Amino acid sequence: MSFETVIKEVHAMCKLEHSNVVRYYTSWVEPPTFGISEESSSQQPDVPHLYIQMELCERSIEDLLREDGKLDKKTYWKIVMGIMQGLEYLHGKGFIHGDLLPCNVFLLHNGEAKLGDFGLAKSFDAEHEMKDLKAAKDITVEMLRAIDPNLKNDLNKTVKKIF
């Protein structure tokens, strides 16, 4: 991921504050350092380091599915509703996430879903894009009606199809 892409993610995160979006706290850039440890030696020289402090989330949907396998209906729908509310907020603020995968939807200890990883986030002009979003919303509702919440694979497919 390029430094410019990371900066774009930080700029997107700065503007967002919602219970279903990972909270950004602060960020800072430090000058390039390399050769200090094995970890840093693989990094490109002369590239500054960006540090981002944000809300700590327990795990992602991907982790949950790998660890637990199945989801009960209550957990499943809580996650789906959190994703939908987060998306509604993002769209209302003029952002399209652009990379919603199970690894980019995070969960708190109480099971609340939070959208994160805004590296591919795009802003849009609501006046020109609203027609497309309304059509996408209608398709999403139809997809949600067809979900079988008992199967691990369905959640993966649903997350990918919806977003």
UniProtKB/TrEMBL annotation:
GO terms for cellular component: cytoplasm; nucleus. Keywords: ATP-binding, Kinase, Nucleotide-binding, Serine/threonine-protein kinase, Transferase. It comes from the Eukaryota. The keyword Kinase applies. One of its GO terms (molecular function) is eukaryotic translation initiation factor 2alpha kinase activity. Its EC number is 2.7.11.1. It holds the Pfam family Pkinase. Residues 1-163 form the Protein kinase domain. PANTHER family: EUKARYOTIC TRANSLATION INITIATION FACTOR 2-ALPHA KINASE 1, EUKARYOTIC TRANSLATION INITIATION FACTOR 2-ALPHA KINASE EIF2-ALPHA KINASE -RELATED. This is non-specific serine/threonine protein kinase. It comes from Prunus armeniaca.
